[in-house]
Amino acid sequence: MNANDKVVAVLTLPFESMRTTYFAASVVRLYRNEITGALKIGKRVGALAAEETIVFREARVLQTIESDYIVPVHDVARVQEEGVGPDVKVIEMVMPFYERGSVCDALMRGDRFSVGQAVRLTRYALYGLGELHEQHKLLHGDVKSGNVFLDGERARIGDLGMAVPMEEDGSAVPLHAMQPSTPPETFRTKRIDRRSDLYGVGLVLHELLNGPLPYADYGSELVQSRLTKGKRGVLNEHLNQQPHIPPRLRTIVKKATSRDETERFATAREMIDALDHAPFIDWKKTDDLTSEGTVADIPDVRYRVTATRVHRPDRWRLCGRRFIHEWRRLIEDQDVADLSSNDTRAFFDQMVAVATSR
Fold first, then answer.
1. Which of 47, 189, 236, 304 has the highest local Cβ count within 10 Å?
2. Do 84 and 145 belong to one domain?
3. What range defines the domain where residue 29 resides?
């Protein structure tokens, strides 16, 4: 054998495919190691329109990323798909399996998050993006609730299959994905940067606070039509926020998801700082008509808003109370015509202002 000859051995992993969890432009499978019993996730990506991503250009970089806020990539392998010619490049990333899945998975199961949980999970995702941007000079390129994974009570930003390296000015040529979370500049300027990833985080925060977007309404033709016109893929009415969402958090969502990237947060650190300075009551619904919560660092003081019908069938009465040693009225009761009205929002805003005043 010539000294310059290279010997390539084929390593077969003892993975049993348990099920396919996602099938579209990429295929995601749940695997079980037949020897250890450990569960893994494999994401298979074709090179079509993805040649500039880091997984195809320099996959080993993904394995060097070690972070408490980013889903690790255990290995990357070239795959020969059955029925696909050898000239077609297909790569599979092997990653950990998280029992709770992604934020999107949890929301679709019917899980709902309190205001405080939404803020905390968003901060974890931003820490992960901050590391990708500032330490590794990578743009994620596909930030959405389906790519923020729940690791216990923490969150990790994951699925780096569409990640692209930044150029010297911090921007990159995007992949033209057609989905509601795609930032408008993908088609308007054909460049993305840090602010494009933060647009996706803004949508994740919106869903954590308000519940999932109605994805069934978003056919490919609708999304394509909006994005190619420079609009958000998400309809404006689907970004309306529930009345109990505190005003500062509403502003953060609106800023992060601005159609104009120059109006968004410039860095993950800037968005984290905004969250850190946003006062809120950690509202969680105890039933359809009652919300209870506390303010950070004061768990012994509780707040409650209840809605009850008044004599007229089209009116509701809102009552805000505070519990220290017993429940007492905090602000004057107010009658409203609709529990989703601006009057209801103003009532919750007043509760937050009184509870967080120092």
1. 304
2. no
3. 15-96
